[in-house]
Amino acid sequence: MNVVADPSLYRASSSMAVCPVLSAQPTRALVDEKLQIVARNLRPRQEVTLYSIHHTEDKDCWEAYGHYISDEHGSVSVTEDASTGGTYTGVEPMGLLWSMRPIPGSRHGLRLRKKDIMSPMVVNISIFSGHMTQGFSEKDALATVVTERWYLAPGVQRVDVREQGVKGTFFIPPGPGPFPAVLDMWGGGGGLVEYRAALLASHGFVTMALEYLSADEHRTHDIGTEYFEKSYQLLHSHPQVCPGRVAVLGLSFGAAVTFTLAAYSKTAQPRCCVCISGTHVYPFNKPSSELQDRMNRNNAKAHLDENNHLVAKYTILPIPTEPELKVHVGQIKCPLMIVVGQDDQNWAAVESAEDIEQMMERSGNGHLLTVLSYPGAGHLIEPPYTPHVRFSNFITQHNKQKVLMLWGGQTKPHADAQEDSWNKILLFLHTHLHQDTPPAARL
Question: Residue 218 above 80 pLDDT?
């Protein structure tokens, strides 16, 4: 018996067979995990645009897009195929994240930072027909997938710290412990910033995100070495922390604190330290009034560029030659990693790193130093795939004014620096916090 198929059924099945399919794996992942984004069932050699959008907690929208041409099988893979245009070009598996920028018409001077680390960053990824540069919200996508990007791995505990005058947050990995630990400090923007600490805990470190400047009222005159030593001891004495296996990590102003603790403290003696985009010209072991007066004088060297962005790099230049005006890094007895961007326009981190290297070599502890220096990277070297911003809104410490602070950096090299430095920071921490004995300083 001959069976004749209903033509309408054939057309429907054919239509379903060629329906474009978009996948992004894993759909739930830590923010430093790579995505595998693949589109299938396109027409051979079809021009398409891959598009990502994220709605922030502040109700702003960030987007990125890349132009692709499908292969002879009608497929596109971001790990194999090159974007020919958009917010990034070339073979860039994570370009849809690190090249994100505020959508046209957004508020000026935005910076993408996660506040509530108990919830994910939700990123919608879509594919559109043709090479588009605008109007994505007005056109139907061929396919869309929703992804979640987490700073907090399953099982990591978040614990508020309000003890002995110290304000911060503990992040404790799952499992019996005890674990190595990291004291995590951000810079002069103030407030309690938790996302990097949460990510470090997701990699197996008990991490304390420390607040030492109020977001609303900067209190450098009230904060001294004692506060940071007390914070360190709270972390070190935690029952889930391995005694003697605590690191200190600081960015910008937090790096200045880290240098000071490592060089001078008798009670906070880290196993190793990481300093990102920092300087040694503000030793925190000096009287706080003296330090504040010096910072106020130096701030007069800041200037506005042609775009009305504040360039603060020159506030610490030239690097002082007087030993008493710098942290005596020659006294540091633990492994030290310094991370700098060569286009840092906020602090003279490159010049500081060069001076630190010379000081440590003269003191005989240069073998403890590792310097990662990245061409084209700016001041805000963050966890990988964080969108780069060359400038953003900022409240200055000395006069509480809102400015557009110039951080520096170019998008692609800055993204490369973030990915490379993060992997090396994690390796550095694992190496020195897990080994049995720290390397001895040489005289």
Answer: no
- What are the tokens at 277? 């985009």
Q: How confident is the model at residue 222 (pLDDT cuts 50, 70, 90)?
A: low
**Within 10 Å of residue 369's Cβ, how many Cβ atoms?**
18
Contacts 24+ apart (CB under 8 A), 434-442: 434/180, 434/245, 438/271, 438/272, 438/334, 438/335, 439/335, 439/367, 439/368, 441/332, 441/333, 441/364, 441/365, 441/368, 442/364, 442/365, 442/367
User: Residue 281's closest CA among 264, 249, 257, 303?
Assistant: 257
Hey, what are 289's tokens? 């009034």
- Alpha-carbon gap, residue 210 to 206, rounded angstroms: 13
Report which of 179, 206, 356 is spatially closest to residue 275, judged by C-alpha positions.
Answer: 356
SS3 315: helix
Taking the C-alpha atoms of residue 388 and residue 416, their distance in angstroms, rounded to an integer, is 11
270 vs 276: CA distance, rounded Å: 16
**What one-letter code names the amino acid at 231?**
S
Q: Give CA–CA dist 418/374, Å, rounded.
A: 9
Place of tokens 């805000």: 380
Beta bridge partners of 99: none
- Catalytic residue IDs: 252, 344, 379
**pTM of this prediction exceeds 0.85:** yes
120 contacts: CB under 8 Å, gap ≥ 6: 28, 148, 149, 150
Asked whether the beta carbons of 312 and 295 are under 8 A apart, the reply is: no
CB 256 within 8 A of CB 282: yes
Residue range 304-362, pLDDT digits in tens: 999 999 999 999 999 999 998 999 999 999 999 999 999 999 999 999 999 999 999 99
List pLDDT tens digits, range 55-82: 999 999 999 999 999 999 999 999 999 9
Eight-state DSSP code of residue 155? T
